[in-house]
Amino acid sequence: KAGVTQTPRYLIKTRGQQVTLSCSPISGHRSVSWYQQTPGQGLQFLFEYFSETQRNKGNFPGRFSGRQFSNSRSEMNVSTLELGDSALYLCASSRTDNEQFFGPGTRLTVL
Amino acid sequence: AQSVTQLDSQVPVFEEAPVELRCNYSSSVSVYLFWYVQYPNQGLQLLLKYLSGSTLVKGINGFEAEFNKSQTSFHLRKPSVHISDTAEYFCAVRRSSGYSTLTFGKGTMLLVSP
Fold first, then answer.
1. How many residue contacts between A and B have a Cβ separation below 8 Å?
2. Which of chain A's residues have a Cβ under 8 Å away from the Cβ of B102?
3. CB-based contacts of B63: which residues, under 8 Å, 6+ apart?
C-alpha cells in the first residue's frame, strides 16, 4: 500500500507570495491533518480535515487555510508569506483516531 | 488540554549502550500515548503506542516504553542502540475518549556514536 505523499518536497518563495501544498493520504484514510515543524516551536497542529470538513483547527492566523477533496486529497494554502513561515510542513492521514501516518513533508523556505 | 514535556533535547550515547528518553505528560483526563521517530529529511514514523492494557509496550526496532500513570510518564527505552537509531524522537498524547488531536513534545535528538 502506498504511503502518504506530499508535493512538492521543496519550495522556495519570497515574502508576500502565496503557496499551495498538496497531500495525498493512504488509500481508505478519510482524515488528513497538517502540522508545521520548526526548530524553535517543534510540531504544531495546523488543522484536520475529515470527509471534506474541517474538524479541528490550531492556533494559526487566517493566512493559513486548507481544504479536502472528495477523494480525501488535501491542500493547504499560505497567503502573504512571511519569513517565519519557513518550516517543514507535514501531512498525516489516518483511518482511526489511534494512529496517524505521516508523509515526508514539504520544506518551505521563504526569502 | 494535554501537554507533553520531553526533558532532554539531546541524548548522546555510544553504540551498544542502553538508552532512555524521558517523556512526561499532563492531562486531567485519560490519555493515549505515542512515540514517533523522525529520521533526517523524513516524516514521522510510529514506534509504539499505549492505548490500554499492559503498561509495558513493545514497539519496532527493539524499542519499548512503560506507561506510569502515577508519575504521568511514558519513557522510551532500548537496551542496546545502533548507529542507525540516530534520529529525533517525539512523544505525543491525545485524550482517550472522544475526538482530539495529537499534542507533541519538543523532541529529543538521539545521537549514537561508535
1. 44
2. 33, 45, 100
3. B35, B47, B48, B76, B77, B78
Lowest mean pLDDT among A9-13, A58-62, A97-101, B37-41: A97-101
Q: pLDDT, tens digit, for every residue of A15-48?
A: 999 999 999 999 999 999 999 999 888 899 999 9
Residue of B nearest to A31 (CA): B101
Burial class (CB in 10 A: 0-12, 13-18, 19+), B37: buried
Q: What is the 3-state secondary structure (H, E, C) of A71-104?
A: CCCEEEEECCCCHHHCEEEEEEEECCCCCCEECC
Q: Is the pLDDT of residue A96 over 80?
A: no
Q: Which residue has the cell 545502533?
A: B82
10 Å CB burial of residue B47 (0-12, 13-18, 19+) is buried
